[in-house]
Amino acid sequence: MSDNAPGGEAATATKAGSVGLMVGALGVVFGDIGTSPLYAFTAACQFLDAGHLEASVLGITSLFFWSLILVVTVKYLGFVMRADNHGEGGVFALMAQLRPYFHSKKGTPIVLLIMMFGAALLLGDGVITPAISVLSAVEGLEAFSPKLEHYVVPLSMVILVALFAVQRFGTGKIGVLFGPVMLVWFITLGALGAWQLAQHGLTVLAAANPYHAVHFLVTHWQTAIWVIGAVVLCVTGAEALFADMGHFGRKPITLAWYFIALPGLVLNYFGQAALVLAAGKAPANIFYALVPDGWPTLALMVLATVATIVASQALISGSFALVRQAIQLRILPPLQIIHTSEQHESQIYLPLVNQCLGVMCLLTVLLFRSSDNLAAAYGLADTGAMIVTSIAYFFVRIKRQEKGLTGSLVLLALFFAIDFAFFGANLLKLFSGGYYPLAIAGFAFLLMITYRAGRRVIHNYHAERREPLNSFLDKLNPDDYQRLPGTAVFLTGNNLVMPIMLANQLRLFQSMRERNLILTMAAESVPSIEGDMITETIPLAHGFVRVTASYGYEDTPDLDAIIAEAERRLFDGATPQPVVYFASRERFVPDRRNAMPMIMQRLFSLQLRNARPIYEYFRWKPDDFVEVIQTVKVDK
Fold it and tell me: What is the mean pLDDT of residues 246-271?
């Protein structure tokens, strides 16, 4: 078949689309991993054994090579990313799949709590990554001229402000812009490494043999744990890679890794190793030593700076995805979410999250002021999140995928061997900066458990006070109330009980509409609902209808379309006009007699006051809208 035939055109378009997604994935997904050569190998070579230089260099290089293979290629691309939730990645995507298997009437099951903490760790790491990436690139000014050292921090802050300012344009548009930049970056990484290998010989290629990694760990056990703490820097972007999966899909990410990112990284690390062997020692900054002094250094610094802006994008867009999933899973309060693409529902922008991350990144740069100082804080949160992902994947594998327990335990043990080695090495950084991302993660985790506990308190409060809808209708005498023209839609979390908005309308105004639809929008643990969202339409007495519709955590349901479809099914006619929507918001009043700790009560009250109303997550064009504020005070 020729390319001019319809099938050929479709195949060509599909191929072009796949290439575009690959390049876009480079711009959003691989930034963190891709800029690790700026600082990772230099950090590890601080522990070289000058008396056994070649063995040390080969051992450290082998650790870098096999970390990339085992963590990114095998663990994440080979296993974890196959446990996606309808194309969506991240620890909350794993959690969404496990929720049906874990139930507890007293609180959140421990497995789900662990996953929530893992997501919080990734959010904490999202503050560190942009700061260390940009700082490490701009520090090339010092390599160009030591006199420019005092410009590093101000320039880094300007770059970060610009980065967070462009987030509102969306990850898709950013990926189109950044993808070609990262393509040039990975080609440059590979070319620099290949040039060093051509200059200094191919001795270091022996590091591909895992014997050198094992031999180094055995013979240098006194410093091995410090080296491992530096080696982990080359894979710290793996969690963000998984979280960003929903933006582009597993296949484009996998192809981009095998054909572009991995070759560029491996060649560069081997090239840095060849340079160290040739020099007989490690330069102060090995990466910038790959090019001659002068303008080549400045040119490389400019490219590296642009690449580190892209590196920051991986964690920022991953944070957006994680927070949105948490909101839809009722783990965080509703926030404003802006969809930045008409083609891809998962490409989003969260203004409040973007502002908080931006402020924290700027504060981080001011506090630590150099990539060397930040390296002490980097890695602990990310390796903790890697452990949580291993645990979550294990349960998804045996419960959702129904894989054998023995094989799953063996795989978990292999993952744990790597994860805990990295985590243990980074524990040494706890008091020299590692506490910083952990503190941020701890606060994020507190927000999650507080909101979840508060919602449970409100649920129990309503369960004790609200009358069943059927019981209310049995006692209702329509003649006691004025019937107004049109349709009333009552948005409620439970359409089996009397909506507080309806009770207030009857009590205060002694009136009701011709038709009254009690609508519950049920959030499902899937990204999107294909086709009809309505799952139930039950006609009741006196013109009342109970309607239930489902939506995924990637959906933005059209309420007008749902109401029109429900009435078409029930009445086979147009919806009486006007359509009036009723919704409620709670105001929580802290009380010392409540069993919930007072600090959590105050925090939950603050969360509710600043939360975006849940109905704003839906598309609708009501003629009229009524919002009811309900005060909730639990004194027991």
Answer: 90
pLDDT in tens, 464-521: 777 888 888 888 888 888 888 888 899 888 888 888 788 877 888 888 888 889 999 8
Burial class (CB in 10 A: 0-12, 13-18, 19+), 551: buried
- Residue 409: pLDDT band by 50, 70, 90 thresholds? very high
CA distance 96 to 108: 13
Structure tokens at 262: 């991995």
Domains and CATH numbers, the chain: 17-454 (1.20.1740.10), 468-632 (no CATH)
Q: Is 545 helix (H, G, I), strand (E, B) or coil?
A: strand
Q: How many beta carbons lie within 10 A of that of residue 338, not counting itself?
A: 14
Distance of alpha carbon 108 from its chain centroid, rounded?
A: 21
CA distances from residue 84 to 172, 241, 330, 525 in whole angstroms, order as listed? 21, 13, 20, 12
Tokens of residue 474, six digits: 């049995």
Above pLDDT 70, what percent of the chain?
91
Beta bridge partners of 583: 627
Please state, in angstroms and rounded to a whole number, the distance separating the CA atoms of residues 376 and 468: 58
CA trace torsion 65, 69, 70, 74 (10° rounding): 180
b (16+ CB within 10 A) / e for 389-399: bbbbbbbbbbe
Centroid of chain to Cα 386: 13
Cα separation, 286 vs 37, in Å, equals 9
Residue carrying structure tokens 């949580």 = 388
What percent of the chain is modeled with pLDDT above 90? 28
- Within 13 Å of residue 511, how many CA atoms lie on the same side as its CB? 9
Q: List residues bridging with 549 in a β-sheet.
A: 521, 534
Given a contact cutoff of 8 angstroms between Cβ atoms, the answer to whether 248 and 24 are in contact is yes
Sign of CA dihedral 189, 191, 196, 202: positive
Neighbours of 319 (CB within 10 A): 26
Count of residues in the chain: 636
- Cα–Cα distance, 256 to 253 (Å, whole number): 5
- CA nearest to 97, candidates 395, 445, 521, 408: 395
What does the pLDDT look like over 379-388, one tens digit per residue? 788 889 899 9
Tokens standing for 314? 């991986």
pTM: 0.78
pLDDT for 8 equals 43
Nearest to 382 by CA among 315, 443, 309, 325: 315
CA 461 to chain centre: 33
